[in-house]
TrEMBL record:
Keywords: Decarboxylase, Lyase, Pyruvate, Zymogen. PANTHER family: PHOSPHATIDYLSERINE DECARBOXYLASE, PHOSPHATIDYLSERINE DECARBOXYLASE FAMILY PROTEIN (AFU_ORTHOLOGUE AFUA_7G01730). This is L-tryptophan decarboxylase PsiD-like domain-containing protein. InterPro entries: Dup_hybrid_motif (IPR011055), PS_Dcarbxylase (IPR003817), PsiD-like (IPR022237). It holds the Pfam family PS_Dcarbxylase. SUPFAM superfamilies: Duplicated hybrid motif. Residues 41-173 form the L-tryptophan decarboxylase PsiD-like domain. It comes from the Bacteria. The keyword Lyase applies.
Length: 427
């Protein structure tokens, strides 16, 4: 019987720490032992930026110096990334490989795991928010993304304990989708494991589709019923959302102008309702329309890839040890985003907005619909590539909603709500 698997993404479990240490040690040793340590072009470009820009060089030094003493003075056998030189070597190693399976939250975000400690510092915040740094990181992630979409990446689609087609991995993927058989839940072009179940690349596996009928639209003919647009865990419902706020302060308030990067339509949602939910690396990563309606505007926004809220970093009483998972409200205004405005057929809903928010390695938020296209509730809007991610739905103040979280309270310990099931009703 499938069971709810809560994320508890704000908790860095001892098992996570043990696996993180083992993974980091392995990558460190591999990077150091590489006979040819010539950096790949995009990594070399980041190195040159660091070493030719005095301000960025200072940040790159300080973000390691500011790591708390309790971590710096950890046991000698505890692996650490000690400086930006090691960091670059490890990045160079990672982007020539596909992620191997393990049960931890960082499995699909290896570079975020490399940056885990420095990005929680003040200097790390400034480094990872820097536009020049993010331009170089974008080139690195695009380089890696091309590899993950290539047939060469299928070597991790095997049946070993570290393979994504191994018994443990397939069980985890099926259970995460509330099923008990991966091939019954997900569309596989082949049943032959030697042919990787028909998946052409690691990214093809990551963006896998459900089999027909696995996720039917709930209340397809009821225009007052709003569907869950992503297979995701509810994080927060915010009412009377301000047009602009100091999103970087401790409470992480939402800021519509920053979320939509000064789009003039942001004002239409001032005082309205915002729903945010989180997808883990093990979740289904395609987005679906929550309503019947017409796509009236769609675009991608650039942003930072590895910044986290300072108040969740090491200045906090309870720092976010598991990368930036507790900074998700903050990330809606800083990370890469895909924005899709939909004019619902139901006038009680009218204009609404879906925002896909990339987290860390999720650098490619792919929109698959076009402006002017009419979509039915449950139709695909796009997809995330790589890693974990979050998303937002915005509603105008005129749209009065009653949410249906299927017996849950929003928060970091919630569980996935099935995509295309009802998430809210218009009053």
């Amino acid at each position: 019987m499938a069971v709810d698997i809560p994320y508890n993404v704000d908790k860095w479990r001892p098992s996570d720490q043990k696996a993180y240490n083992a993974w980091l040690r392995k990558v460190l040793e591999e990077a150091k032992s590489e006979e040819n340590q010539k950096l790949l072009p995009p990594v070399q470009a980041l190195k040159e930026l660091i070493e030719n820009d005095h301000y960025i060089w200072n940040l790159a030094q300080m973000m390691f110096d500011e790591i708390p003493k309790r971590l710096v003075d950890a046991p000698a056998d505890l692996p650490q990334v000690r400086d930006y030189h090691q960091m670059l070597l490890m990045i160079n190693r990672v982007i020539q490989r596909a992620p191997e399976y393990n049960e931890t939250s960082f499995v699909g975000t290896p570079m975020a795991a490399i940056f885990n400690y420095p990005m929680g510092t003040r200097a790390g915040y400034a480094f990872f928010m820097n536009d020049k740094v993010n331009a170089k990181l974008r080139d690195i992630l695009n380089y890696w993304g091309r590899y993950l979409k290539s047939e060469a990446s299928t070597y991790v689609l095997n049946t070993s304990s570290q393979g994504w087609l191994g018994e443990e991995a397939l069980k985890r993927m099926a259970e995460k989708a509330y099923g008990d058989d991966f091939q019954k839940v997900f569309k596989c072009a082949s049943s032959d494991f030697d042919k990787h179940l028909g998946f052409k690349s690691w990214d093809d596996y990551f963006t896998r589709e459900f089999n027909p009928g696995v996720r039917p639209v709930e209340n397809p003919d009821d225009p007052d019923s709003i569907a869950c647009s992503c297979e995701s865990a509810p994080l927060k419902i915010a009412h009377n959302v301000p047009l602009q706020a100091k999103f970087w302060i401790k409470s992480q308030p939402y800021s519509l102008l920053d979320l939509l990067q000064n789009d003039p339509w942001a004002a239409k949602f001032a005082g309205g309702t915002l729903y945010q939910a989180f997808l883990s690396v093990f979740s289904y990563h395609r987005w679906n329309s929550p309503v019947d309606g017409t796509i009236v505007k769609a675009y991608n926004l650039p942003g930072a890839y590895y910044a986290e809220d300072l108040y969740k970093g090491y200045d906090s009483v309870t720092p976010d040890d598991s990368q930036a998972t507790a900074s998700q409200e903050f990330l809606t205004s800083t990370s890469t985003r895909a924005v899709i405005f939909i004019k619902a057929d139901n006038p009680k809903i009218g204009l609404m907005c879906f925002v896909a928010v990339g987290m860390s390695e999720v650098s490619s938020d792919e929109i698959t619909v076009k402006v002017g296209q009419h979509v039915k509730k449950g139709d695909q809007l796009g997809m995330f590539h790589y890693g974990g991610s979050t998303h937002v739905m915005l509603f105008r103040p005129e749209t009065q909603l009653e949410f249906n979280l299927h017996g849950q309270e929003p928060g970091l310990g919630s569980s996935d709500i099935k995509v295309r099931s009802e998430i809210a009703r218009v009053k």
